[in-house]
């Protein structure tokens, strides 16, 4: 276990300054910030960001990316999240799908998808969870049956974030029966969300928002060329994908904008309780950010990380939930999603969506067992 | 100090690994300190790190001293290294005074302290009542700040001139009351920047470093113990409820370590208030959580005086309160951030470590 502090290089600091300038121009003062990765879906913003070279930036130039480091991507991402920028359209494709395509995709898939993702024009959802398959992902029942030139997919995916807005989703399904090891025989297929047989129905979130969906697939034809990676290696691919996305700034910055607006609207000078809450939150943000950054640096240096990303996600997401409670305890306001106060609106949203922080991308309980195995070595 | 980072911790571990092993810690406790460990560290010049060589120190910087202190915390060594290096050593050398053989401790300004200086360079007289001075009993000298007609002076009091009222923290480390009414040999106007605020900041960094060492050791102990202790026919680390304790301890120990590492690295040349406050807050919060989780995971063995865990948790429960609790530092930090305004918040938080190794 080694989380090492890291000093940003002059080039990295320069990148950060550029992103800050960009955000000052692009986000109007009255902009209502989003809560981390659940921010607004804004195609225009994603395209502008892509034009600046900051979508899919770690992808090699020959596929439309900039060949930048994990730390560079970290810097851009933390600036976007801390400003509550509307990253909803491209975020999953940028964080998750692009690296998976680069690692496992066929040459044709890379050439087709990566430049479009890097342009901010091609958006992905994740098709893992099912009604009877959550933490125990290997139990998925969606099947793909081989037919002439491709596959026919049948099954139901749930909690599919953004499926009603995005273009594709990577579907984990069974391509051969599970006799013996159920981790065998699973594959990932890239499914066009506008294909015949795909039905997308909204599942309304606790706050009424339409964020995720049920996606039912009935005899959806997927051409052979859309099998992602090795047939039958879906399990290994999905687990490596989940560990890759685990430790980023989206795991501790969801409520940073809420905190910033608390400070902005605070009556000066703060009461001792208020000052104490501010100091304690700032200390934790400062520390957890450095843990997360150290994972990014280690990835760039090719150092293997086992337990660390899971630890960062657990500590980050649980901190986010404590931060909500701490802000609430000093805010002395009744929560109203329509309040005139930006802080009160953000806090209302944070309270309503907070429980999902420790569920999405693998629950706290599951993460802990991943982390524990890594700690034991 | 020319050693590379990491090798200092190793060297210190080599020196006090046995002298401050669990059995040695137990034997030292009734004495209020671990004299053999102090002597060995002093012989190897680790008790004057960060004090310039021309003032009787071994050179090096605050980050080096923090590395020594992390090792001191890890071995639960009852030695006044933070006091000698970071407090007295700094105040005396800054005032142009040589650091006596030591150990020298320093009173950093307890709210109830009073210290009045009278006289002139020919003859100084000190009247002082000091509280919770670390290891005053064992110190050859006690340094403090005393006012001479409202001008603070750095004053050095030989042990013989101090009346000691023994006290201790939860780990039996001496935290004494001191009364002085005597003629004192040394008093020099305090140079700019030497005041109770900056002294407390250094003390807090020193304790945070020691806490991070103790937390790292508890992490190791818990992993080892839960991996060997068997109940219901398997090692207890197979139970999810126990895994929860293990993971929680690892998280907080690592958070404490990275906070201290950044604060110490950035303390070249001087510690920064945000960094040190953040490190003391994070270590203080971690101490309560880790101690509770580690005791739960260990069961009754952890509650025995002989077992190493308690030597570490009793220190964490003490050190988190010394040189300012998490509440105090949070309040101070919060006031500063509120005054700086919302626009400055993210730029400050996203400034982590800024100083490289060489
Ligand atoms: C906002 C949000 C967005 C999401 N977006 C997507 C998406 O886009 N695509 C997608 O595929 N999925 C998505 N998900 C689903 C998410 O991945 C699942 O919620 C998650 O994997 C947990 O599955 P579950 O909800 O079925 O809970 P379950 O697995 O049924 O778990 C219920 C409880 O039991 C516990 N539990 C289960 N197994 C164990 C065990 N072995 N040991 C200890 N405890 C256990 C869990 O930790 C949890 O507390 C999203 C979820 C949320 C909240």
Structure, briefly:
By secondary structure, chain A is α+β, with helices and mostly antiparallel strands. Chain A has helices spanning 10-26, 43-51, 70-82, 91-104, 107-118, 234-244, 256-265, 272-300, 307-331, 342-353, 364-376, and strands spanning 124-127, 143-147, 150-161, 168-174, 186-192, 198-204, 210-223, 227-228.
Largest sheet of chain A: 4 strands, mixed
Domain module tally of chain A = 3
Q: What's the count of strands of chain A?
A: 8
The CATH H-level homologous superfamily of the largest domain in chain A: Butyryl-CoA Dehydrogenase, subunit A, domain 3
Percent range for β-strand residues of chain B: 15-25%
Head-to-tail CA distance between termini of chain A: 9 Å
Distance between the termini of chain B: 13 Å
Label the overall shape of chain A. Answer: globular
Secondary-structure element sequence of chain B? HHHHHEEEEEEEEHEEHHHHH
H and E order of chain A: HHHHHEEEEEEEEHHHHHH
State the helix count of chain A.
11
Q: What compounds sit in this structure?
A: flavin-adenine dinucleotide
Poorly predicted regions of chain B: none
Please report the first level of CATH classification, the CATH class of the largest domain in chain A: Mainly Alpha
Would you tell me the overall average pLDDT of chain B? 95
Q: Main interface pair?
A: A-B, 52 and 50 residues
- The fold-level CATH name of the largest domain in chain B is Butyryl-CoA Dehydrogenase, subunit A, domain 2
Shape annotation of chain B: globular
CATH architecture of the largest domain in chain A: Up-down Bundle
Describe the strand arrangement of the main beta sheet of chain B, using strand numbers.
1-4-5-8
């Amino acid at each position: 276990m080694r989380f090492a502090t890291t000093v940003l290089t002059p080039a990295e600091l320069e990148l950060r300054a550029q992103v800050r300038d960009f955000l000052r121009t692009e986000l109007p003062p009255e902009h209502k910030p989003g809560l981390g990765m659940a921010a607004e879906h804004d195609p225009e913003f994603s395209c502008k960001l892509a034009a600046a070279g900051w979508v899919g930036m770690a992808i090699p130039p020959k596929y439309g990316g900039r060949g930048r480091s994990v730390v560079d991507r970290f810097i851009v991402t933390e600036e976007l999240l801390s400003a509550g920028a509307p990253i909803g359209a491209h975020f999953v494709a940028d964080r998750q799908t692009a690296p998976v395509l680069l690692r496992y995709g066929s040459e044709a898939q890379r050439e087709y998808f990566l430049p479009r993702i890097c342009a901010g024009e091609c958006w992905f959802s994740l098709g893992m969870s099912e009604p009877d398959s959550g933490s125990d992902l290997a139990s998925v029942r969606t099947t793909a049956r081989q037919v002439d030139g491709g596959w026919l997919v049948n099954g139901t995916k749930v909690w599919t974030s953004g499926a009603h807005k995005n273009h594709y989703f990577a579907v984990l399904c069974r391509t051969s029966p599970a006799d013996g090891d159920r981790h065998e025989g699973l594959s990932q297929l890239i499914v066009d969300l506008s294909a015949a047989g795909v039905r997308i129905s909204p599942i309304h979130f606790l706050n009424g928002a339409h964020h995720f969906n049920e996606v039912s697939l009935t005899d959806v034809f997927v051409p052979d060329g859309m099998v992602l990676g090795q047939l039958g290696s879906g399990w290994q691919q999905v687990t490596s994908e989940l560990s890759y996305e685990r430790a980023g700034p989206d795991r501790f910055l969801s409520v940073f904008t809420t905190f910033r607006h608390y400070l902005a609207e605070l009556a000066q000078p703060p009461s001792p309780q208020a000052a104490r809450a501010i100091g304690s939150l700032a200390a934790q943000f400062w520390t957890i950010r450095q843990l997360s950054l150290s994972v990014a640096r280690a990835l760039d240096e090719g150092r293997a990380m086992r337990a660390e990303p899971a630890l960062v996600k657990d500590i980050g997401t649980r901190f986010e939930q404590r931060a909500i409670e701490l802000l609430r305890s000093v805010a002395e306001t009744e929560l109203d999603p329509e309040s005139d106060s930006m802080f009160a609106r953000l806090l209302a949203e944070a309270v309503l969506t907070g429980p999902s922080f420790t569920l999405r991308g693998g629950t706290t309980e599951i993460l802990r067992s991943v982390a524990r195995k890594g700690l034991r070595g | 100090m020319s050693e590379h980072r990491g090798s200092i911790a190793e060297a210190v571990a080599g020196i006090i690994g046995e002298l401050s092993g669990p059995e040695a810690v137990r034997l030292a406790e009734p004495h209020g300190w671990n004299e053999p460990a102090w002597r060995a560290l002093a012989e190897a010049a680790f008790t004057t790190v960060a004090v310039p060589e021309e003032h009787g120190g071994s050179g090096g910087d605050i980050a080096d001293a923090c590395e020594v202190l992390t090792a001191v915390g890890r071995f639960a060594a009852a030695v006044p290294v933070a006091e000698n290096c970071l407090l007295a050593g700094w105040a005396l050398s800054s005032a142009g005074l040589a650091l006596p053989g030591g150990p020298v401790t320093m009173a950093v300004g307890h709210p109830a302290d009073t210290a009045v200086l009278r006289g002139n360079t020919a003859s100084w007289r000190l009247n002082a009542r000091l509280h919770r001075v670390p290891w005053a009993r064992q110190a050859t000298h006690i340094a403090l700040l005393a006012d001479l007609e409202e001008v603070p002076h750095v004053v050095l009091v030989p042990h013989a001139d101090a009346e000691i009222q023994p006290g201790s923290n939860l780990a039996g480390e001496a935290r004494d009351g001191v009364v002085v009414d005597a003629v004192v040999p040394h008093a020099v106007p305090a140079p700019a920047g030497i005041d109770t605020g900056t002294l407390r900041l250094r003390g807090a960094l020193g304790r945070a470093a020691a806490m991070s060492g103790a937390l790292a050791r508890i992490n190791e102990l818990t992993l080892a113990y839960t991996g060997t202790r068997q109940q219901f026919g398997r090692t207890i680390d197979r139970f999810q409820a126990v895994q929860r304790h293990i993971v929680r301890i690892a998280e907080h120990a690592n958070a404490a370590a990275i906070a201290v590492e950044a604060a110490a690295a950035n303390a070249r040349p001087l510690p920064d208030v945000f960094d040190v406050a953040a490190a003391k807050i994070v270590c203080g919060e971690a101490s309560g959580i880790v101690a509770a989780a580690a005791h739960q995971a260990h069961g009754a063995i952890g509650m025995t005086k002989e077992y190493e865990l308690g030597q570490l948790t009793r220190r964490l429960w003490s050190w988190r309160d010394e040189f300012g609790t998490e509440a105090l530092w949070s309040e101070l930090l919060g006031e500063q951030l509120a005054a700086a305004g919302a626009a400055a918040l993210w730029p400050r938080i996203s400034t982590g470590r800024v100083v490289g190794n060489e």
